């Protein structure tokens, strides 16, 4: 009697765990199917999608992680990493994560001290901006458009190639990403005189939770103010700035 009394709750518990795990797995599969379909609709290559079964998954995941502690203590890894090459792929990721209730993390340079761009306690996917890193500089107007997957080092290098007199005030570490850095502030060697990076942002393209691409005018001044210091990830995915 004592033995069967202790076995029964064990089976009950085991059933609940297995049942919960399979519904989470179903959600993940639904998300992946949704993403593949959306990519097909926009004629996108699905080689921008990495699952743990993909041979490059681990190297893509670890490539920009600067603080290994949060990653090694994290209970889970992303079940998909998306490396968009076009804004439509970001829109697809947002659409499918909303539809299937999956948490979406954005990563630019991966330098978040707490690993916020690549760890989570709930099932999640990463949109990694690594392939969106073009920098276009207008030396007549002294302005630039920078895709947020670029690093500070790439920005400084490109400015120096174009001009011996222009510069941009931002952080000192060349591998920090523009996406997290500019949307969080950006303090560096020139800040005493010129302020922080966010002070010099004059426009941005933000993809919001509905997948709409907003610029400064269409997002409004309040939101534009918020993404220059409040951290972009609370408001959408900053595509370029
Ligand atoms: C070695 C090192 C040196 C540093 N040096 C400086 C310095 O000199 N000056 C300074 O001010 N700071 C410095 N920092 C801090 C750094 O600026 C911040 O951690 C910054 O948020 C990192 O941006 P990231 O894109 O590299 O990081 P990520 O980890 O990719 O992102 C950081 C946060 O921003 C979000 N995010 C990233 N990209 C986007 C996007 N496109 N749209 C919306 N949200 C986005 C992420 O989800 C995450 O929450 C340094 C950090 C490290 C590790």
UniProtKB/TrEMBL annotation:
InterPro entries: FAD-bd_PCMH, FAD-bd_PCMH-like_sf, FAD-bd_PCMH_sub1, FAD-bd_PCMH_sub2, Oxid_FAD_bind_N. Residues 1-24 form the signal peptide. The keyword Transmembrane helix does not apply. It comes from the Eukaryota. Keywords: Disulfide bond, FAD, Flavoprotein, Glycoprotein, Signal. Residues 74-241 form the FAD-binding PCMH-type domain. The keyword Glycoprotein applies. PROSITE patterns: FAD_PCMH. Its cofactor is FAD. Gene3D superfamilies: 3.30.465.10, Uridine Diphospho-n-acetylenolpyruvylglucosamine Reductase, domain 2. Belongs to the oxygen-dependent FAD-linked oxidoreductase family. This is FAD-binding Berberine family protein. It comes from Forsythia ovata.
């Amino acid at each position: 009697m004592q033995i069967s009394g202790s076995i029964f709750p064990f089976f009950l518990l085991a059933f609940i765990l297995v049942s919960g795990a399979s519904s989470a797995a179903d959600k993940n599969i639904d998300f992946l199917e949704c993403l593949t379909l959306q990519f097909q609709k926009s004629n996108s290559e699905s080689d921008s999608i990495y699952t743990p079964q993909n041979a490059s998954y681990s190297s893509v995941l670890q490539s920009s992680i600067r603080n290994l502690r949060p990653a090694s203590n994290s209970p889970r890894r992303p079940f998909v990493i998306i490396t968009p090459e076009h804004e439509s792929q970001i829109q697809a990721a947002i659409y499918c994560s909303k539809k299937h209730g999956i948490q979406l993390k954005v990563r630019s340079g991966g330098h978040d001290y707490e690993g916020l761009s690549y760890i989570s306690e709930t099932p999640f996917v990463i949109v990694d901006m690594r392939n969106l890193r073009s920098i276009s500089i207008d030396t007549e107007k002294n302005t630039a458009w920078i895709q947020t997957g670029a690093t500070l080092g790439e920005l400084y290098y490109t400015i120096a190639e174009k001009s011996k007199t222009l510069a941009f005030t931002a952080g000192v570490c060349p591998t920090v990403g523009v996406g997290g850095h500019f949307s969080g502030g950006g303090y560096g060697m020139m800040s005493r005189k010129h302020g922080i990076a966010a002070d010099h942002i004059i426009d941005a393209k933000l993809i919001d939770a509905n997948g709409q691409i907003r610029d400064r005018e269409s997002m409004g001044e309040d939101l534009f103010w918020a993404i220059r210091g409040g951290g972009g990830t609370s408001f959408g995915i900053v595509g370029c700035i």
